[in-house]
Amino acid sequence: PFTHAVDYCFSSTYKLPIDYLCTMQMRFQVLVVDDAETNRAVMSDLLTQDGYTVEVAESGADALRLVRQRPPDLVLLDVMMPGVSGIEVCREIRSTPELAEIFVILVTALADRESRLKGFDAGADDYLTKPIDRAELRLRLRTMARLHRYRSLLQERTRTAMVTDLSPDAILTCGADRKSTRLNSSHANIS
Q1: What is d(CA 168, CA 109) in angstroms, rounded to the nearest whole number?
Q2: How far apart are CA 108 and CA 127, in angstroms?
Q3: Which of 40, 60, 78, 157 could pair with 89 in a Cys bridge, judged by C-beta atoms 3.0 to 4.6 Å apart?
Q4: Adjacent-strand bridge partners of 174
Q5: How do residues 44-74 score in pLDDT, each as one tens digit?
């Protein structure tokens, strides 16, 4: 799991750090979607060994149901499936505002330029061709997990800044190194 320290806040009223702002645990969640059981098992085993939380779906319809019930951080999505294709699933994810930030990596045996462009046009973040190179899969997922972590940290810092700006108390925000990073405007009211 990914762990990082979030800013510590000290208030003029409360002399102790505000605990809920101190740390955040993040476990990157991946949904593996493939109509071939062997492919699902291989990818799921590899990702589980690497510490990811993995769920599997065997069709595009199952993937959409799972994504709506428990949105993952990333969908590893086979393109060619009977029924709802991976391209259609990707388009649906991108067109649904509450799901649109989920990372999508398309996985397919189609390696031609036109197929890749069609996938990117549907909203895919990345594209892998079969057979999957395990090292490449690991590196691409690690990159997506890092981007997710940075995005989450930025969102949390933005929320923290909004909350501290609304407080009538003077609040000093410090990083894990205990160096001051921000002081809200209420500090001007301290006499």
Answers
A1: 59
A2: 8
A3: 60
A4: 8, 180
A5: 999 999 889 999 999 999 999 999 999 999 9
The contacts of residue 138 (CB under 8 Å, 6+ apart) are: 46, 50
How many whole angstroms separate alpha carbon 78 and alpha carbon 32? 8
Helix axes 86-95, 60-69, angle to 10 degrees: 30
Residue 101 is given by DSSP the state T
Q: Any idea what DSSP says for residue 45?
A: H
pTM of the entire structure?
Answer: 0.72
* Residue 156, amino acid: E
Closest to 77 (Cα-Cα) out of 124, 7, 110, 19: 124
- Return d(Cα 81, Cα 5) in angstroms, integer: 41
Report phi then psi at 83, rounded to 5: 80, -120
Which uninterrupted H or E stretch holds 11?
strand 8-11
Q: What is the pLDDT of residues 142-165, one digit of tens each?
A: 888 888 888 877 877 777 777 777
Helices (H) and strands (E) in the chain, counts: 5, 10
Please list, in sequence order, all residues whose beta carbon lies within 8 angstroms of the beta carbon of residue 131, skipping any fewer than 6 positions away. none
